[in-house]
Amino acid sequence: MPFSSFLKCLLVLCALGAFTQTARAQQVTLIDNIVAKVGSHIILRSELEFQNANAVSQGYKSTNLRCEILRSLVQNKLLLARAEIDSVIVDETQINAELEGRLSNFVAQIGSEEKLEEYYKKPMNEIRSDLKRSLREQLTTQKMEREIAGKIKVTPKEVQQYFNRIPKDSLPYFSTEVEVGQIVKIAQIGTAQKQAAREQLEAIRKRIMAGEDFAALAKQYSQDPGSGAAGGVLGFFKKRELVPEYEAAALKLQPGETSPVIESMFGFHIIQLLERRGEEFNTRHILIKPATAQVDLQQTTALLDSIRNLIQKDSISFAKAAKDFSDDMSTKGNGGMITLPGSPTTDIPVDKLDPSIFFVTDTLKVGDISIPLPYRTEDGKEAMRILYLKSKTPPHQANMKDDYQKIAAAALSEKRNRAISDWFEKNKDTVFVDLAPEFKSCNLDD
User: Fold this and answer.
1) pLDDT tens digits, residue range 393-445?
2) CA-CA distance, 348 to 346, in Å (whole number)?
3) What is the DSSP string of 190-205?
4) Does the UniProt entry include the keyword Isomerase (predicted)?
5) Helix ranges restricted to H, 30-175
6) What is the dihedral of CA 237, 241, 243, 249, to 10 degrees?
7) Max Cα-Cα span within the chain
């Protein structure tokens, strides 16, 4: 991968990597200060040093590494600054959906909200705020890049020319790679568990209506990782920024009123409207999630078995079945095919496969589909899945026949990065950029 492309991938990962830093990176204590200003945006020394440490740990060497990383950081901040000028806005619903998914994932990985707060040494509402700001910046940067280079394509001739420029002794050697697909079905919560959650919340609502403090009960009972510790307060939101069921119930209330129990994709809520300010409204809520200890895995297995039989009888393709039936949002739009983060292809080196996938697919022949297997989603939900081995490629040196998809992706990435770099050169003088004295020697024109 060209170094500029590596930096681009690294910066995307690091935008959210502040929440998953390695132990080694956490051992470094820095006195933070500002190393660059780009319009109203700043770049901190800790941000620069953290990403420099990641680049070094990945084996990338350069006599000018910090300057190269700083240039990429300045480019990202310029994209943000120009997004503000050009009114390029990311949909708030998209940000909130990403936020909830990542928070749930973090909590599931570390074990509890309390452990997450202990790990970051800050309350959940601050963790939520920091992550939301990071996500907003990342998604805005990506949207600006799509505006600049999203329509750029490469022709087969350009792919061949790109490949021809690679010295023969520098062609990568690929280990055994596989293409693996999955269809996931999340086990459904039983009616009894839903009813128990609703009844618990109804009892809490009665206590509120009898005069008990909503905020105190939210701190005690709410299962919302972001707002529970803050007395259930969500803060101000505009219309269409919260799930429809929640918003509809909230907007029926007068300030101080408490809603009936309502159900959303997150569970059951009671809502109190605190304030309306023009098109914005501020609420607090108590969330109770149905217990998931008794989900119906048997019914889920039977459903996946029937889907598997349809595929094996050629009544439906695996890709169509994944699109129609899978509950895994990250793969269903890709024909069910699993990819590595940041990878442009569906080919996965076997040494990078999740062990739970490797040990299953290692027993399959190309074209085989596994029996339904237990699975836990990233946000901790119990599920079942079937795995499909689409292809298996033996070790080989890169060539146009076997690796066209990878080579085309690399050629496209180079062409788009060049377009974004050209945009940076044309627009860097439209926003005030100031570097700390020690970095004045970094030539942003290179």
Assistant:
1) 999 999 999 899 889 999 999 999 999 999 999 998 889 889 998 888 887 76
2) 6
3) PHHHHHHHHHHHHHHH
4) yes
5) 45-57, 65-85, 92-110, 113-120, 124-149, 156-165
6) 40
7) 79
Q: Which two tokens mark 24?
A: 């080694």
b/e code 263-284 from CB counts within 10 Å (16+ = b) = ebebbbbbbbbbebeeeebbbb
Partners of 285 in beta bridges: 271
What are the chain's domains? 3-159+401-439 (1.10.4030), 174-188+295-397 (3.10.50.40), 193-288 (3.10.50.40)
Average pLDDT over residues 198-217: 95
- Coil/strand/helix, residue 93: helix
> What predicted TM-score, i.e. pTM, was given to this entire model?
0.60
Q: What is the pLDDT of residue 32?
A: 67
Asked whether 382 and 159 are in contact (CB, 8 A), the reply is: no
Q: How far apart are CA 369 and CA 387, in angstroms?
A: 6
Convert the pLDDT of each residue in 137-189 to its tens digit: 999 999 999 999 999 999 999 999 999 999 998 898 989 999 999 999 988 77
List pLDDT tens digits, range 233-276.
999 998 888 889 999 999 999 999 999 999 998 889 999 999 99
DSSP string of 348-369?
EEGGGS-HHHHHHHTTPPTT-B
> What is the distance between the alpha carbons of residues 353 and 177, in angstroms, rounded to a whole number?
9
Spatial distance between the Cα atoms of 433 and 38, rounded to a whole number of angstroms:
5
β-bridge partners, 376: 382
Q: In angstroms, rounded to a whole number, what is the distance separating the alpha carbons of residues 70 and 47?
A: 10
In sequence order, what are the beta bridge partners of 282?
236, 275
